[in-house]
Every structure is written in structure tokens, then in C-alpha cells.
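Hello, quick one for you while I still have it in my head. Could you read through the record and tell me how the C-alpha cells relate to the sequence? No rush at all, and the record is pasted right below.
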Amino acid sequence: MVEFIFNLLRGITSIVGAEQGFINMWEAIRDFLELGGDVLFLIGILMVVMWIMIIERIIYFAFHHKIVVKQTVDAWNARAERKSWIAHRIRESMISEVRLSANRFLGLIQACVALCPLMGLLGTVTGMVGVFEIMAILGTGNARAMADGVSKATVPTMSGMVAALSGLFISYWLQRKAQAEIQLLGEHMTMDH
């Protein structure tokens, strides 16, 4: 599968004349993945999933949320009666539906941000197990073999932290954006007195 993706991307880049740059990039990524071990694949997949959800939320707030808010406010303003207890409950229900739409994937994004360092920790543990296995078999005299295990322990930790930091700030911003938008919607949906 990886070979198929490599050949496909290589063919695409050869059309635009960037084949050598692609090959250099591919080799650098391959070397990095070999240096950090198998856990880096999991961290990479987790980060891609997290960023797909983040991009979806950014697109939602940039385009679709305004339409949802306008429809909700128009539906509220079209009501003839906006004073009663029932009208108040209907208003809360409408705001709650928009809140659910605005908060979609935010919990999953935050879970991905929290999981990235844990996946890095998993890489640390597996790398250190490798170091201890080498020490048990070869003793402490083989520094090169131990260094390979240490790199497999530290690279996933760093990668997990970088992946988490890449989503941490945008996750917080999306959460604050959702809260602000819901508060603004509540202010636009006024009750009659």
C-alpha cells in the first residue's frame, strides 16, 4: 500500500517537474519514521484525523454557522407568541440545537490533543523496552545498539508533543468561538415582555 502511494505521488510530481524534491521529502519522512519506530505511524494518523476535524470546524464557522444562526433567528422572530413559559422552552431548545451543531467534534478534537502525548509516551516505553532488551543481550558495551533504542524512545515523545501542541491552541480557539457564537445567538433571540 505504501509502495502504491509512493508510486502514485511520484508520478504526479514527475508531471510538474518536482520528482527529485518529492523523492528527497519521501526519504526524509521514511528515515524519520524508522528512527522513531512504529508508534510514529499511530501519532501521524491521530494527528491527521485531528486536523481533518479542525479544518471541518473552521469551515463550518466560516460559512455554514452563519446560515444556521440566521435560520434559527428567523424562525424565532416568525413566532407570534414569545412571552410564555412554553415559548421560553422553545427558545432554549432552538439555542440548544445550534449549540450542538457548533460544538460538534470539539470533544473529539480535545481527546485527540490529549491522546497525542500519551501515544508519544507509548513510544517512549516501547523504545526503552528495546534498550533494556539490548542491554540484557549485549550488555552495556554496545553504545550504538543502545542509541537506536533511545532514539526510538525520544522521537515519539517529541512527535506526540508537537502533534498535541499543533492542535491545542486551535482547539481552545474553536471552543471559545463556539461559546461566543451561542452567547451572541441568545442575545439575538429576544423574549417579548
